[in-house]
Structure formats: structure tokens, C-alpha cells
Recover the amino acids of this structure.
């Protein structure tokens, strides 16, 4: 038995892919301990989406999703809040670059085929850096009530948060689909958000998350007098 256990341990510690996964989980457990103790925990995606959406109080604001793919989460959100118009952004040709979770450039490509969506959903096709600014010009003055970030990549998330910097206000809810809990999470959506917080001098609170996934919801609270820390606070 001892020999079997030793062989199993040797296999685990020499499997770099597995150790990379473990490292992502361990760092996320530390993050949970340090920063999510006051956030509400949920068992699954649907519960978090529903609850986070209830925290969005500006019914006249923008309700947006970035990273639509086949429309599963967007249609769920549209069903949960049918009285508002949802705007879903996606290139519909897949990721523009490799992602640290293992997806290569071009992953999630649906060949420009738009998914079937609810009647209260409007799709915007194209890369974010080409479509978001024209959209905002067509919707002047509207602030973000709810933002679902399913961009996966640092670069895409950075583009979205930078473009929306004047539309994100105290009370805006941002739900990140891949903030933590996977290998290299610190360099993707999380990094883009921490940079946004520092650059725009805002404060926020973590309000909800799913312990068995990568999803975390935050609420912007107020402008600060000094740059916020970029270590997760």
C-alpha cells in the first residue's frame, strides 16, 4: 500500500498540468479567505445571476453582456428581467487570442451565426473595440446598471471596462464569469478589473460568488479620494 501511495504522489507532483490546476485552486482559496468572507455564496450560476440581478436598482440603465457565444446566459438573464432591453456583444468568431485556461485563439467560434435570443435582447456583432464606442454614441448618457463580463481574456475585459469607464457608477453591478479559480486567473479578467479600479479611482465590494466556479459579482460603491489597492481589496 505504501508503494502505491508513493507512486501516486510522485505521479501527482510531476504532472505539471495538474499542479498548475492545484495552484489556481489554492490561490483562489486564499483569495476567498481574504476578500470574500462577507460576500454571499451560491451553489450555481443561475442562483448567482438571479440574486446579482436583483441588486441592480437602475431599471433605466444599460443591461449588457460581453461574451454571448450561444446565448445561454444572456437568455437566462433576459428571462429573469424581461422588462428591460439586454444588449449582447460578441464577435461570434471566437477568441482573438489564446486564453490561459487552455482555449486557443478561435475557440468558441460560431462562424458569425447569431444565436436565437429572447425578444428583449439586442445582439451587437463584432469585436468589442469596433462595436462598443458606436453603441455608446447611440445611447448617450445612459449608465450601466448590470454588466455581465464573460470576456475570458485580459485584453477584451480591459477594452470593455475602459470604454465603459464613464458609464460605470456607484450602484453598477458587474458579474465576472471568470474572475478567479483557474490557472492564471490573476492575469485575465481579474487583472483588467484591478487596473480599472486603480486607474479610475473607484471603490467596490465583492457581493456574491459561486464557490465551485470562477464567477464573482461586485458592486461599485463610490469614487475614492485616492487610488484603490490593486491587491483585491
Amino acid at each position: 500500500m505504501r508503494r502505491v501511495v508513493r507512486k501516486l504522489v510522485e505521479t501527482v507532483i510531476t504532472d505539471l498540468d495538474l499542479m498548475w490546476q492545484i495552484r489556481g485552486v489554492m490561490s483562489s482559496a486564499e483569495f476567498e479567505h481574504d476578500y470574500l468572507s462577507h460576500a454571499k455564496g451560491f451553489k450555481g450560476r443561475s442562483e448567482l445571476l438571479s440574486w446579482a440581478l436583483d441588486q441592480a436598482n437602475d431599471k433605466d440603465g444599460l443591461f449588457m453582456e460581453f461574451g454571448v457565444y450561444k446565448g445561454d446566459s444572456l437568455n437566462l438573464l433576459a428571462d429573469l428581467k424581461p422588462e428591460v432591453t439586454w444588449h449582447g456583444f460578441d464577435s461570434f468568431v471566437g477568441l482573438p487570442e489564446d486564453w490561459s485556461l487552455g482555449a486557443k485563439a478561435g475557440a468558441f467560434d460560431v462562424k458569425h451565426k447569431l444565436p436565437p435570443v429572447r425578444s428583449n435582447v439586442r445582439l451587437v456583432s463584432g469585436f468589442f473595440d469596433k462595436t462598443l464606442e458606436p453603441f455608446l454614441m447611440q445611447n448617450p448618457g445612459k449608465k450601466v446598471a448590470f454588466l455581465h463580463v464573460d470576456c475570458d481574456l485580459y485584453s477584451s475585459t480591459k477594452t470593455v471596462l475602459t470604454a465603459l469607464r464613464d458609464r460605470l457608477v456607484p450602484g453598477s453591478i458587474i458579474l465576472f464569469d471568470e474572475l478567479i479559480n483557474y490557472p492564471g486567473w490573476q492575469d485575465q479578467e481579474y487583472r483588467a478589473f484591478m487596473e480599472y479600479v486603480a486607474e479610475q479611482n473607484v471603490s467596490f465590494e465583492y457581493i456574491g460568488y459561486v464557490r465551485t466556479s470562477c464567477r464573482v459579482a461586485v458592486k461599485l460603491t463610490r469614487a475614492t479620494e485616492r487610488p484603490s489597492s490593486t491587491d483585491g481589496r
